[in-house]
Amino acid sequence: MINAKTELMEIVEDKKKHIKCACIHYGKFNFKTDDIISKDVILKVNYSNEEYESFLKELDFEYDNGYGMQELGGRVWFDDNTWLERREYDGSEWWEYKQYPKIPEKCLK
What we know:
Layout (H helix, E strand, L loop, with lengths): L1 E2 H12 L3 E12 L4 E9 L5 H10 L3 E2 L8 E7 L4 E7 L2 E7 L11
Antiparallel strand pairs: 1-4, 2-3, 2-5, 5-6, 6-7
């Protein structure tokens, strides 16, 4: 189990980035009750401090990022045109930092 807010903020602080906007989806199927728990956590471009605090508050929950079904998905965009993308492999999930590749010298004028 891991806290979604803590996980995201550790990456943001480590990369020293400023969030431009975010679309994050949480979904989980409860096999005991046959209930589906689902919510979208959205932070729109040009957000206010209050909207940012609300976004972080909505992300303040525990989820299982280990092996099993993927529970968290989405993207977080940064001001410098880099982003985080939710990835999953064989039931394990994580945030992956993405940036455009550097243009090779031979392609520049």
